[in-house]
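Hi W.,

Here's what went into the run:
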Amino acid sequence: MSKPVSRREFLNLIAATGGVATVLGIGGALGLIPASTSASVPNLMALNGQRKRVVILGGGISGLTTAYELGKAGYDCTVLEASHRCGGRVMTLRHGDLIDEIGNPQICQFDDEPHLYFNCGAARIPSSHRNVLNYCKELGVELEMFINENKHALVHDPELNGGKPMRNIDISTNLKGFMGELMFKGFSNAELDQPFSDAEAEKLLAVIRQFGDLNADGRYAGSSRNGYAEGGFISDGVQREMINIRDLLKADTGLLRSVLLENEGETAPMLMQPTGGMDNIIKGFTRQLDGKIEYHAMVAGVYDHGNMVHVLYDKDGERHRLEADYVFNCIPAHLMVGIDANFPEEYRTAMKQIRRGEAFKGAFQMKQRFWEDEEIYGGITWTNQPIRQIWYPFHGLLKQKGVMLAAYDYGGGSGFMRMTHEERIEAMLTQGEKIHPQYREMAEHGVTIAWHRMNHMLGCSARWGAMTAENEAHYNTLQQPSGRHYFIGDQISRKAAWMESAIQSAHWAMAHMDQRVRAEAGV
Amino acid sequence: MSKPVSRREFLNLIAATGGVATVLGIGGALGLIPASTSASVPNLMALNGQRKRVVILGGGISGLTTAYELGKAGYDCTVLEASHRCGGRVMTLRHGDLIDEIGNPQICQFDDEPHLYFNCGAARIPSSHRNVLNYCKELGVELEMFINENKHALVHDPELNGGKPMRNIDISTNLKGFMGELMFKGFSNAELDQPFSDAEAEKLLAVIRQFGDLNADGRYAGSSRNGYAEGGFISDGVQREMINIRDLLKADTGLLRSVLLENEGETAPMLMQPTGGMDNIIKGFTRQLDGKIEYHAMVAGVYDHGNMVHVLYDKDGERHRLEADYVFNCIPAHLMVGIDANFPEEYRTAMKQIRRGEAFKGAFQMKQRFWEDEEIYGGITWTNQPIRQIWYPFHGLLKQKGVMLAAYDYGGGSGFMRMTHEERIEAMLTQGEKIHPQYREMAEHGVTIAWHRMNHMLGCSARWGAMTAENEAHYNTLQQPSGRHYFIGDQISRKAAWMESAIQSAHWAMAHMDQRVRAEAGV
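Here's what came out:
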């Protein structure tokens, strides 16, 4: 059994070859746009005819990134993908597609139209995810805006407004009004740590008044920021009634948080999506990997021999053997534990630490885009029912039909996973019609997907849990190679569930390997 | 001289024919989407072969709406447009287009590509502007999202951060942190008007902590909501430094307001724009009005004779005369004052009350979309320099070039109007490069437009000023017809500058006329 390259050895390697800046360098070659400093694609040494064989286990986005980049540098790559498709949790459902959930296989019955698709896994690209965006550009994947926050979408809680959904903007406007009053009081009455000049205090109070739409004396008495009850164009607008804070406080804390904060963090604007479906990114990669991907190839063994590594896999009832200089592996570690390999014990122990999320998503094709008639164009409606969210598609605007996300349970506690497909559909309808009365009548061709039961994955995003010293050690162990074997994927990142993390993990591993190749070549 | 129909007479007419609900009714016939209750298009009585001639003065969007709707009902319509184009302040500049500013005519030099255009007038459609959206659907105008707010865009003030632009999200996150602290203090220390139960108080404090990203004890110490200074995917994210409130308060109050509130009111999400340019709406109308529009037709006189109205206009050096049953007029009232007409004195006095905005807009074609390399995708950068705003185009994402709004002075106080074209361009460059160092190098083919000098318009949106009793009376006078003459356009609305207002004014006037036609017909 070979010994993993230690962190110290790696640092020595890097020192010997010019430092990490030369490796984790600049995207480059991305057309006319100057390369980004946050792009992480490594400047791999081109092999120039030297033969290096790489086997990539799994056709998730980290595996495809690896095959694509190493292919450009002259490596001979093979991707072994167990499923009938690449992409892993980057998956788009369209007319006729198989949902390969164990015990619940479905064929998607959406109408066969370009705008009728469902991104049942990855669904959003934040604008800070530079590597994903760079690949979209490089691979010719057209992007459009994804609408996450829409103040005209709804909030539903049985305790709020007698169970009748409220517009997000009606809650947020009134909540901010009350908050503004609190700030005003806080500023006026409390002893502040910082002394403000009169000019500063005046400015701050002006900003607070603006924030809450307060009167000059710091009182909130309703606002027209949430639109008029009627009129506004030809006749004067009639202000909506002010909503008392106590009525708003009947809502679930999580929902109030969503109303105030959906605009923050990783899902803050701007978010994007590929026009026509998230898997256009996968297709962008696979177009470049013609003949290099083996589908229905089940990995049966991975054995590092110090100077090479060999991989066994089963396909069409036969066992195959590949020899490689390096192996990159995005098979979920909790599945890899069950596959024969000669990993060191420390590595194997670490593999067992990565738990997996149990996200559930469901969607309906809707016969009519009834939400647009309620002035909702894209965005999320929040509810504290188990479905949690409804996503209104913006794409296909003003067309007849649309595919709506009808449930997104990322907590795993809702019981959707234990239901049959029919029970899930009924639960989605029952909960959905509490928000939109016409929901059941409009819904057709429902799909449901429980990621922890999806074939060849058996889990959603990696979950490391709290980064205790022990977990930190395990993480470091798995980030380092075991001999010539590298783990990649969002499982080897600090921000699981994002394509960007999976891609950066592949970049990191390739940069590490590149150092070894350069060292061997004496450059 | 004929007497205008009074409000009372109009109400009597309505009472006689079934009430306003039958008139200001439902959009209907908009395909499969149920008609909206907020659509204002009137249910006009079809003429069924009865001949009624209507002359429409001005091919702005209210005039085109009138010609389109009356045409559907069987009216014989002619639009007299003084300019070479319809649309008025709905104007899109592309390669080769004339900017007909008096004393500053320009031909737009943008490259001839579909994504290189500039909406130099109307540029945003709020999702609550139902009539605009309905016409887009009805006329086959494809829509896409317009990105107004982008927390990754910048804020610039010479007093703030030593004049170096800051990201909007860095200001808003830290400002909210301080505001959260104030609320916490306000809640803890001040006497509240409403007594809260323990559960309510706990919930409110939780929401406040979430709002500001505060510690459990109500303190703000920085946040990761504005992204990490580095890392976050493969390595742990490093939090950005907290910014002191006193440093933020160096910014202009208006800028701080923009940071906190650009998400509110009429320009709150969702905003839309026609794919390819705002004037696709105009083209949508004019496609339906083939042969009904006279261009270069200068109205010279409007004379109401009680049973008909006649219009004089000059075209190709000749005077023409048209007789009509009704005239709808969207010529700006302050220009109409100078055109011969037999309006009653009260009407003429009211016309003189409508002032006009002096908005200025400028744009550059940019050689590269450098903003996307700074992770800015669409949205607005705010500055307290005279240019006020920079708008980054989202359309054309990842292409090489883009057309950027480089100045938008809606206040009229900046002096841009009094500059030559060359001086304006230089001012836009000088101010722009304070925000983006590469600005001057990247900018090409600048266009500038001062709306109060635009030929045939001589002003931007109507400005009624405060609605004093006197102005209210004038408004009512002009909303009512003078005999068979109706004023339309955003000048006859409570929310000038929006296409929706112009359209609703046309709907209102047509509904009024329809009542008269029905009364005459005895139905």
